């Protein structure tokens, strides 16, 4: 299985290249697009060698998702806590984007390793902004403190016009994903994949992983969710997150894995289709070769001693 990395790779490469040459004035202007309709715009001017600007546009939220000022609830606080004084939020954001950050390169940590670590965190902007509501709930779970949203259904956007649901409880958090695929073939493969995904949890070595359930019908935890959010052609996947799953450094990994779960499934569905197409093409080539070998060779004309000829089928 392949897990998607949290840092946006191109953003990370640009930032690491920039801090490698802090003494130079470099002109940058890149527009980038990531999966699930996340857009970036990163800029640097040769007239201001100590400043970079990074903007992010998020996928359109569904009606049930709670947004504040065009971004998920708690995202501003999460950005300020994560990045510190070297990075500021520009208000208002760049036109067409939901959040714009100003990077002051003169305030970067003096140690090179610390600078690299900070730039990698900046490349994780998507995870910090979109995962802010879920991270807040799981922080309360890790601290074994009752979350303010306890026992209340909460929608977290993760794809354009789509969300997954978080149900906080005192001793656990239940995450429910309505799985939707536009292509009918993808839906069939995803359903099979998710059923096997649920069975894999019972294998040895995975006993401590979050409990996973798949159902073709909405689970009881989604009682009260809007009807349009329960329209899923590949069923519903539920994870039960316990305090041990979000201890220490596990928190960020858990948040990112949950926020990109649909992309993870979609990636493996596409890989499965590609693998099956490759196998089918190879099988067809093998059958064609067998048919070619079965064809009779061209008729050959043979002359006898008297000068007459006859045709022999070989």
UniProtKB/TrEMBL annotation:
InterPro entries listed in its UniProt record: ARPC2 (IPR007188), ARPC2/4 (IPR034666)
- Gene3D superfamilies membership: 3.30.1460.20
Q: Name one GO cellular component term.
A: Arp2/3 protein complex
Role according to the record? Functions as actin-binding component of the Arp2/3 complex which is involved in regulation of actin polymerization and together with an activating nucleation-promoting factor (NPF) mediates the formation of branched actin networks.
Q: Which UniProt keywords apply?
A: Actin-binding, Cytoplasm, Cytoskeleton
Compartments where found:
Cytoplasm, Cytoskeleton
Q: Which family does it belong to?
A: Belongs to the ARPC2 family.
- Gene source species: Adiantum capillus-veneris
| One of the protein's GO biological processes | Arp2/3 complex-mediated actin nucleation
Asked if Cytoplasm is a keyword of the record, the answer is: yes
* Protein name per Swiss-Prot or TrEMBL: Arp2/3 complex 34 kDa subunit
| Self-association and partners | Component of the Arp2/3 complex.
Q: A Pfam family this protein belongs to? A: P34-Arc
Q: Which terms in the Gene Ontology molecular function aspect does this entry carry? A: actin filament binding; structural constituent of cytoskeleton
Q: Which domain of life is it from?
A: Eukaryota
